[in-house]
Amino acid sequence: MRLIHTRSLEMEEFFGDQIPEYAILSHTWEKGEATFQDWTKLDNSIREKPGYVKITGACNQAKRDGFDWLWVDTNCIDKSSSAELTEAINSMFTWYRDARICYAYLQDVPSKDFSGQAEDVMAFFKKSKWFGRGWTLQELLAPTKVVFYTQEWKRIGSKAESLTSKIADITGIDEMFLDGSMALSASSISKRLSWIANRKTTRIEDMAYCLLGIFDINMPLLYGEGHKAFTRLQHEIIKSSSDHTIFCWTWNDDVPYDWTRAEKSDVLALVLSDFAGTPPWSRPELHEDVEEISGGSSGQMCYDWGDADEGHIGRWELVRSIRGDCAGN
């Protein structure tokens, strides 16, 4: 793990139990970000980049909070190395989880326009594009302490304290998963997928890759595979979970008309937006619901789904051994 020293701005690499306490930055990527290659020079050209100003602002905040080390995704990963990028993406949830504090920097929330009233702050806060990006979901969920700041580094509030209910309203994530009173593993697969269904990433594949840590999955990155990345992710989830809500997705215009026809034999969702309208099941509710839907059968599970009159599927019969089939057995 490569970290920035908040005073000298030099980077140093650490491994295993030698990693010191550190703060971590969450943000949305903009034009003019500072890369790893930029940071190895630290000349006048990088100081003109908006990304440099953002990172030094985070370093200053970390210093005020008593931290000597900071991690930032733009310059602490050498993205010219595919091996390092793969390791970083597979480790990122852990890195955010283990940070002592996460600074959520909202570039589009200006301090200068605030009149001092809380409602003025929230008007900008709830519209921030930070809440619409795919990668920031794990950056919201993984750390215990997430503190939000405006573009001038004015403190807005904390995830687990003053902003819990507001963030729940914006994201649709239950408060118990935001304040830490309930582990992510207590939520159903479909619930977790619904949290990202309306978010976006620049690369199609990243919609799947940014979920690896949320499902405790590791898999290689294959940029260029498009929507197949999400299919691979679903296969990996099925290998490690008996939660059948992964099949509870909603038909929308992104799904080809014949996606579940017999010749295709595909009962997995095509894209993450298919989970935008799924029922809000949680793990405690899951067993009872599945038994009711399956009719108690040990051989098949039958889901009534879609609109048969519109030519869509009317019913799916899923053999329980599909879990093994998807795992390649």
Keywords:
seven-stranded mixed β-sheet, alpha/beta, disordered C terminus, 11% strand, globular, 329 residues, two-stranded antiparallel ribbon, 33% helix
Notes on the protein architecture:
The chain is an alpha/beta fold. It has 13 helices and nine strands. Strands 2-1-4-3-5-6-7 form a seven-stranded mixed β-sheet, with helices on both faces. A hairpin with a 5-residue loop joins β6 and β7. Mean pLDDT is 83; it is low at 282-329.
Task: Tell me the layout of helices and strands.
Blueprint: E1 2-5, E2 11-13, E3 23-26, H1 36-39, H2 44-47, H3 50-64, E4 69-71, H4 82-98, E5 101-105, H5 118-125, H6 135-141, E6 146-149, E7 155-158, H7 164-171, H8 175-178, H9 189-196, H10 206-209, H11 228-240, H12 283-294, E8 300-304, E9 315-319, H13 322-326
Parallel strand pairs: 3-4, 3-5, 5-6
Antiparallel strand pairs: 1-2, 1-4, 6-7, 8-9
Brief summary:
The chain has helices spanning 36-39, 44-47, 50-64, 82-98, 118-125, 135-141, 164-171, 175-178, 189-196, 206-209, 228-240, 283-294, 322-326, and strands spanning 2-5, 11-13, 23-26, 69-71, 101-105, 146-149, 155-158, 300-304, 315-319. With 329 residues, the protein is of the alpha/beta class.
Helix and strand run: EEEHHHEHEHHEEHHHHHHEEH
Q: How much β-strand is present in the residues?
A: 5-15%
Instruction: Compute the average pLDDT.
Output: 83
Shape category: globular
Give the helix tally: 13
Amino- and carboxy-terminal Cα gap: 36 Å
Determine the structural class based on helices, strands and strand pairing: alpha/beta
Q: Unreliable segments (pLDDT under 50, ≥5 consecutive)? A: 282-329
Specify the biggest β-sheet: 7 strands, mixed
Work out the oligomeric state of the chains in this entry.
single chain
Radius of gyration over alpha carbons? Answer: 22 Å
| Main β-sheet, spatial strand arrangement | 2-1-4-3-5-6-7
Number of strands: 9
Helix content: 25-40%
